[in-house]
Design brief:
Keywords: Pyridoxal phosphate. With 380 residues, the chain is of the alpha/beta class. Helix content is 36%, strand content 16%. Helix 4 links the parallel strand 3 and strand 4. Helix 1 packs antiparallel against helix 7. The chain is globular, with a radius of gyration of 21 Å. The relative contact order is 0.17.
């Protein structure tokens, strides 16, 4: 199709290309000095003590759950309105995801419904900042402290977002925060992710976990010599490369500009679609600074049953809409585990209504106008 605008897309400029080429010409292309440089820049940006980068957001989640000691037969509470990785990463460790329904307006987990799902097997809460709108973390922490639970912020949508004027990722109200650097996210390293924390023990565990469970210091046994290393956990090869980290460092310098552009597109959409009779717009609560990874619209009752037709028509017009998400427990794998339809009715209704419109920094004014024009064309 000649004019097709995807829902999300990376923005790569000459500075990014130059940064990657410099690494390709250097002595290190796998794990070298750029890894540490990127980690320090990331931690500094969000205001956390430590960052550990991984080769994907999924492996970062796996590492985070492992570092928080999630084990076989433990339970962890999360939302069904997310990508499958949020709960899959717990399944990798033999733990059981417990899904809690969502808020109708933000798509975030409904904190008021968490407590009733807590059992003596519950180990942690994994909350997702859906579409870039922060969860009310102060309330989450209050609840977690009451039951002595760990908190994971899945902020794969929310790099650059703020909660009560402080950046998501500072871990003020959580044990760890996860970011993703997939090309549709706020910055990209191709594939990549990170775990942020203020806890040194968690930090050191993450470093070992991403490297096959191997450490070259902090030994259990007496070392045989300078070559000595130890495998202390069953870890994985989840390492990011210096090539990716160099791209991440370059991208991070542009992040504020990227967020500003996303928020500006959302502002234009909000104005153009205000009070329309077809769909509801995303919200921004008073405690939130939305980073707009997504711009999710929700079809009104009259149009809900026509979602497939509307989706198809928009794509035919060159508007690369997407749906975020099919509730995780409706996937066949989860159905085989015993999860049933009807578990989270608000999430299921949200899914029947939600369509994500294109929003990314490389969009031109012409692109934005095109999307608005075609949306009205399809609905009218």
């Amino acid at each position: 199709m000649e004019n097709f605008i995807p829902y999300g897309k990376q923005f790569i400029d000459e500075d990014d290309i130059k940064a990657v080429v410099e690494v390709l010409k250097s002595d290190f292309i796998t794990q070298g000095p750029k890894i540490k440089e990127f980690e320090e820049a990331l931690a500094s940006y969000v205001g956390a003590k430590y960052a550990v980068v991984f080769n994907s957001g999924t492996s970062a989640l796996h590492g985070a759950y492992f570092a928080l000691d999630l084990k076989k037969d433990d339970e962890f509470i999360t939302t069904p309105m997310t990508f499958v990785a949020t709960s899959n990463a717990g399944l990798y460790l033999g733990a059981k995801p417990v899904f809690v329904d969502i808020e109708k307006d933000t798509g975030n987990i409904d904190i008021s419904k968490i407590e009733e799902k807590i059992t003596d097997k519950t180990k942690l809460l994994s909350v997702v900042h859906y579409s870039g709108h922060p969860v009310d973390m102060e309330k989450v922490k209050e609840l977690a402290d009451k039951y002595n639970l760990k908190i994971v912020e899945d902020a794969c949508h929310a790099l650059g977002a703020k909660y009560k004027n402080e950046r998501i990722g500072n871990c003020k109200y959580s044990d760890v925060t996860i970011f993703s650097f997939h090309p549709v996210k706020h910055i990209t390293t191709g594939e990549g992710g990170a775990v942020l924390t203020n806890n040194k023990e968690i930090y050191e565990k993450l470093l070992i976990f991403r490297n096959h469970g191997i450490t070259k210091d902090r030994f259990i046994n007496n070392p045989d010599g300078d070559w000595y290393y130890e495998m202390q956990y069953l870890g994985y090869n989840y390492r990011m490369t210096d090539i990716q980290a160099s791209l991440g460092i370059s991208q991070l310098k542009k992040l504020n500009r990227f967020i500003e552009k996303r928020r500006n597109i959302a502002k234009i959409y909000n104005k153009a679609f205000k009070d329309n009779p077809y769909f509801d717009l995303p919200v921004e609560k008073d405690y939130a600074y939305h980073s707009y990874h997504l711009y999710p619209i929700k079809l009104k009752d009259k149009y809900k049953e026509k979602k497939a037709e509307i989706f198809r028509s928009l794509r035919k017009e060159g508007v690369g809409v997407q749906v975020h998400y099919i509730p995780v427990y409706l996937q066949p794998y989860y159905q085989n585990l015993g999860y049933k339809k009807g578990l989270c009715p608000i999430a299921e209704d949200f899914y029947k209504r939600e369509i994500s419109l294109p929003i990314f920094p490389a969009m031109t004014e012409k692109d934005i106008e095109y999307v608005i024009e075609k949306v009205f064309k399809v609905f009218i």
